[in-house]
Amino acid sequence: MLAPHPPVPVGPPGRSGPRHNVFEAAATYVTASVEDDQDRADEATGWVAPDALVFGINELACRAVIALARERDQPVEAVARGLLGLPGAEASRPV
Questions:
Q1: Which residues 6+ apart lie within 8 Å of 69 measured at CB?
Q2: C-alpha closest to that of 81 among 71, 94, 91, 72
Q3: Between 62 and 94, whose confidence is greater?
Q4: Would you say residue 7 has pLDDT above 80?
Q5: pLDDT class for 3, splitting at 50, 70, 90?
Q6: Three-state SS letters, the chain
Q7: CB-based contacts of 56: which residues, under 8 Å, 6+ apart?
Q8: pLDDT tens profile 15-48
Q9: Which residues of 37-55 are buried (b: 16+ CB within 10 A; e: fewer)?
Q10: Cα(29)–Cα(84) distance, rounded to whole angstroms?
């Protein structure tokens, strides 16, 4: 098994100042969205390329659903569907 490597900071070309990695940007963007803090969300979108931010948000969502499924002892699909209010969210088999 390969050891995970820390995320590499990515930012727009020619930008000076502190550099943020994809996961910092995703966590900040999602948190700001939940807290309805548009200024902070806008700031996070400038930290990394748009496709990198989408990747980070997707990774955060996957990890959150997996963690909730384990915590609830429910299938990942049931948790994901339940969070979105979709039919088929019944827990049929544990993770």
A1: 75, 76, 78, 79, 95
A2: 91
A3: 62
A4: no
A5: very low
A6: CCCCCCCCCCCCCCCCCCCCCHHHHHHHHHHHHHCCCHHHHHHHHCCCCHHHHHHHHHHHHHHHHHHHHHHHCCCHHHHHHHHCCCCCCCCCCCC
A7: 22, 23, 25, 26, 27, 29, 48
A8: 555 688 999 999 999 999 999 999 999 999 999 9
A9: eeeebeebeebbeeebbeb
A10: 19
Q: For the full predicted model, state whether its pTM sits above 0.70.
A: yes
Angstrom distance (rounded) from CA 44 to CA 28: 6
What one-letter code names the amino acid at 42?
A: D
The type of residue at 11 is G
